[in-house]
Design brief:
The chain has helices at about 15, 35-45, 90-95, 110-115, 130-135; strands spanning about 5-10, 25-35, 60, 100, 120-125, 135-145, 150-165. With about 180 residues, the chain is of the alpha/beta class.
């Protein structure tokens, strides 16, 4: 069993280079949150030549949050299945995205893009949305508010537990 590594977001290339598939990590800092509809809208804005925002150096968590209760930043915040974002992943990694967080396997093109760019894919634990929600200390909608729970958000997390599912060398816990 490996030691738990603690990392600050945004991730540096050096920090990602030291990560190996299977490493347990706790993240602190800011990340983006969006999923299917947010990816589609962002990608279309890029194709249209009007990129909505710069995702360079960012980490994206694939999640659609539940509404907040009792003064929390967000409610339950469990991961969504990542393979639905595979069609956007190579482009985003090739253009500066640092990392992604979600659940489940990734396709060959995405895995190769992680390897080509020295980036990482973290797995979050499905069914642990309540735990992840408690790690979120701040949340704000940045773009596409009309998408509701699928709007692009920036969240601030503390002690956010993930596992390196694909490392910067293309090694995967799923193989």
């Amino acid at each position: 069993m490996s030691d738990i590594k603690r990392l600050k977001l945004p991730l540096t290339k050096d920090a990602m280079r030291d990560l190996k598939a299977g490493d347990m990590v706790r993240l602190d800092g800011d990340m983006l949150v969006f999923r299917d509809a947010g990816h589609k809208r962002l990608y279309q804005s890029i194709l249209d030549g009007n990129q909505a925002f710069d995702f360079t150096g960012e980490t994206i968590y694939f999640m659609g949050p539940c509404p907040s209760r009792n003064g929390e930043a967000l409610g339950s915040a469990g991961p969504t299945t990542s393979c639905r974002m595979d069609k956007y992943t190579p482009y985003m990694l090739d253009n500066g995205l640092a990392a992604q967080i979600g659940k489940g396997k990734r396709d060959v093109a995405s895995t190769e893009a992680f390897k080509r760019n020295g980036c990482v894919y973290f797995a979050a634990i499905g069914g642990a949305g309540a735990i992840y929600g408690k790690c979120i200390k701040k949340a704000e909608v940045l773009h596409f508010e009309d998408l509701g729970t699928e709007a692009v958000r920036r969240i601030t997390v503390e002690d956010f537990p993930v596992v390196v599912a694909i490392d910067g060398n293309g090694n995967s816990i799923y193989r």
